[in-house]
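Collaboration report, partner site 2.

Our partner group contributed sequences for two proteins of shared interest, and the home lab folded both. The records are reproduced in the order in which they were received, starting with the first partner submission.
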Amino acid sequence: MDENTIKRNELLAQKVIKGLASRNMTGYYAATKEEALSLALSLIPKGASVSMGGAMSAHEIGLVEAVKGPDYRFIDRDAWTDKRAAMLAAYDADVFLTSANAMTEDGMLVNIDGNANRVSAIAQGPKKVLVIAGMNKVCKDIDHAMKRAQNVAAPINAQRFGLSTPCAKTGSCMDCKSPDTICCQFLITRFSRHADRIHVILVNDQLGF
């Protein structure tokens, strides 16, 4: 990444962090993936129970692998036979890991979900929500953020999961009602009533989709 892009990201991140603060959320800026991992782990107490939703960005900085270690109690829904029980257990976790499909320069988070386990946990349940987001997720305003979520994140995720949706075939949102659609629930997080619950680490890199 060239120095001008790095500088631009640093400046834009400070604007987003101020926007998050105005919405009762806490933002941080990490210059590298390694710095993001260290910062994330500093926000997760040893012994904490940790759950997660779709969070490719958390995987990419090495956070998921780290919380699977002996210092934490990781709720691995893939290891549970009863998937519903695993999802319900996630709501009572100390920390919930996720990313954002998009976010605005003034600090709003935008997420789209199919089963709603991710967006519902962001909205309520886990004691702390830790969002890992590359600067590629930052959009000018809510309109651009929604378009990014629908036309960038959703088609790529549909392809990644091998779903038979129009966007998986065309690469852009067709506003479908396909049985496979992952655009079932839209969550815009514009304010948090609970201080110190939602923490967002902005990473100076392209993470996730």
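Second partner submission, folded after the first:
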Amino acid sequence: MPAIGLKGRNVVIAGGAKNLGGLISRQLAADGANIAVHYNSEASRAAAEETVAAVRAAGAEGFAIQGDLTRIADVTRLFDTAAERLGGIDIAINTVGRVLKKPILETTEAEYDAMFAVNAKSAYFFLQEAGRRLNDNGRIVTIVTSLLAAFTGLYSTYAGAKAPVEHFTRAAAKEFAPRGISVVNVAPGPMDTPFFYPAEDAASIAYHKSQAIGGALTRIEDIAPIVRFLVTEGWWITGQTIFANGGYTTR
């Protein structure tokens, strides 16, 4: 059995500055992991620096790195920099995503391309680079969406662009298995973060809440411990999508 603790392990977290990624960064650092905190743009720089400060306050090593992960060169640079500064990489977690709620008949080519670039292309090449750079017995987790199990309209490019990640993950899990690397997706329900609200109105928010235990949205605090489990004691789970949503959807 490979080591399953986090002390001294080196972690790359895409979108690790704030919201779910920020909480994962802090929680893994509290258990002794060193964290490369990726952020996308200048708008997230302050949050990334705040998260790095929290990582270091926990006694772990941490640094922030900016990159547009729809650009393969930036994905490569992220892993190169993390490996150089941390001395190798053991765990790679991708929380990056973009939501669009819009009827198919109104969706533009530019919107389609942007959604697939963020939700599918960046996920694919993150998996690819993680497979190249992770140490043996590494762990890879990608955040997808519980809408993958929903029969609904309006999210065609969001859920549609996340759907291929399940296939990417199954292929990567098989291909990386000889090196002891597990590859898993986590599919939260609609999360109570700033990422969720711009696409919704009061009625749809009420509906989303009504579909889960206690009439509540998923919280980042519900998901971060599941990610921690998958990169430690849950290492034997691979090639799967874990729906963690309080009963919002199932399949």
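Feedback sent to the partner group on the second submission included the following. The chain has one domain: 10-244. The chain is about 40% helix and 15% strand.
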